[in-house]
Design a protein that fits this description.
The protein is built from five helices and nine strands. It has helices at residues 63-73, 91-99, 151-159, 181-194, 204-208; strands at residues 7-17, 27-33, 59-62, 77-81, 103-108, 120-123, 141-146, 169-173, 198-200.
Length: 231
């Protein structure tokens, strides 16, 4: 007798476009998995872990169900995100996506082993859970969250030896600071002074509210679950 098919806890899954990084502007199917032990104080997906904003229902889907939805969307690739997606074994999901000819992208802090076959890895390191050394060479691109004027220098000191031309290092203002002139000027100075591989980044999809056009997406929780920081 065959065992019950494995399922993954899904916070939301929706068709939109990639709002960040090298694949900016491309049609993409997003699978945002539930659960994260990292708990960044400015997290823009706090509904995946914050006790005050966890939804009443967290649906579970098999790898085939998610891959079928991704295929029906018409998107050429799926982005597996979270929360922190690598706390889950993603091998079955990447296999199912590959069988359907769909690209397999992931965004991770890099702090846990990556289980699955991905053709694009965005590694966005977090101070609350530093990336594993074995994961740094796997990154296709890096995304640094710039919280203040010192953030970039601290990341360069910590993992900068992994930054090299050919693998972009995106500098994103932490969202509650996206209007902070000092943070934005720090990013601009870094790009002008250091050049490649550093690039100024932004969460462009938020300007369009693109994700919310899909009925399967959820309304955002406050950043880090703190209403004073906004959304």
């Amino acid at each position: 007798m065959e065992g019950k098919a494995k399922t993954l806890p899904v916070h939301e899954r929706f068709h939109s476009w990639q709002g960040e990084g090298v694949h900016l502007g491309r049609s993409a199917f997003f699978v945002r998995l539930f659960g994260c032990p990292v708990h960044c104080p400015w997290c823009d997906s706090a509904g995946t872990w914050h006790p005050d904003y966890v939804p009443k229902n967290v649906e579970r889907f098999t790898a085939d169900q998610l891959a079928d939805e991704a295929s029906k969307s018409g998107a050429k690739f799926a982005v597996i995100t979270g929360g922190e997606p690598t706390i889950h074994d993603l091998s079955d999901l990447t296999t199912a996506l590959k069988e359907r000819g769909i690209g397999r992208h992931i965004e991770t802090c890099g702090g846990f082993p990556i289980r699955g076959d991905f053709d694009w890895i965005t590694l966005s390191p977090k101070w609350q859970k530093l990336p594993l050394m074995d994961n740094l060479p796997l990154a296709s691109e890096f995304k640094l969250i710039v919280e203040d004027a010192e953030s970039i220098g601290k990341w360069i000191s910590t993992i900068g030896s992994s930054f090299s031309e050919g693998r972009p290092v995106w500098l994103h203002p932490e969202w509650s600071q996206h209007g902070n002139a000092e943070v934005l000027e720090t990013i601009t100075r870094c790009v002008k002074e250091r050049g490649d591989p550093y690039r100024a980044g932004y969460q462009v999809h938020k300007l369009y509210r693109a994700d919310l056009l899909d009925p399967n997406s959820r309304e955002s929780a406050p950043l880090g679950g703190d209403e004073s920081k906004g959304y």
